[in-house]
Specification:
The protein is mainly alpha-helical. The chain is built from nine helices and no strands. Helix 3 runs parallel beside helix 5, helix 6 packs parallel to helix 8 and helix 7 runs antiparallel to helix 8.
């Protein structure tokens, strides 16, 4: 309980004890005194304050954590490993927040711990590093391939265009495979396969070779 909740509960118990003693003073018979004493001690014992401030604050943190985990799970740009790391980060921040709430002495301190904790949890923002890096590798391979195609003057403009479209299509397929990968290993495999496919585009100067043979 917070200091304020303790003070409220102690005051309530004190008020009940005062009322009980007044009832005892007003009693005329032994039986009435005994009844007033029994009623009074029961009233005092029944004072049962609940740690409402801390419970509400911890629930707010738990709700923020549940929302964050839901958002992480729904983010399919992340690999399973990235999701697991982000969820653990959010869980750790929620645990720290609840510990701070437990250690708070006053209502204001509880509110501050709740605010800080929910902010920390909400600020967990995992980035899809594995997939972004893999897609960049594919895009870099595509840029190099297009550069090589453009520099190959044995190819006609049409052959260059066909080859560049083929490389683009392979890069697009690779990035789609990367997006669909669930694990870091699957992302790496899709990247390797994709960059190999793009790199292996090898247009031949068929038109000029055929013309020179005639």
């Amino acid at each position: 309980m917070t200091d304020e909740e303790k003070a409220t509960a102690k005051q309530e118990a004190q008020d009940k004890a005062t009322a009980a003693k007044e009832a005892i003073d007003n009693a005329r018979t032994n039986n009435a005194v005994t009844q007033a004493k029994t009623d009074g001690t029961t009233e005092v014992n029944n004072v049962d304050p609940q740690p409402e401030a801390k419970n509400a604050a911890k629930k707010a943190v738990e709700d923020a954590l549940a929302e964050k985990i839901k958002a992480i799970e729904a983010n399919n740009d992340l690999t399973d490993e990235e999701k697991a790391t982000a969820k653990q980060d959010a869980q750790d921040k929620a645990t720290a927040a609840k510990e701070a709430i437990n250690n708070a002495r006053t209502n204001d301190a509880v509110t501050q711990a709740k605010t800080d904790g929910t902010t920390e949890v909400n600020n967990v923002d995992p980035q899809p590093e594995a997939k972004n890096a893999a897609k960049k590798a594919v895009e870099d391979a595509l840029a190099e391939k297009i550069k090589a195609i453009e520099a190959n003057n044995d190819l006609t403009d049409e052959e260059k265009a066909t080859a560049k479209q083929e490389a683009q299509d392979k890069a697009t397929a690779a990035k789609e495979a990367i997006n669909n990968a669930r694990t870091n290993d699957a992302v790496t495999q899709a990247k390797t396969d994709g960059t190999t496919e793009v790199t292996n585009v090898d247009p031949q100067p068929e038109a000029k070779n055929a013309a020179k043979k005639q």
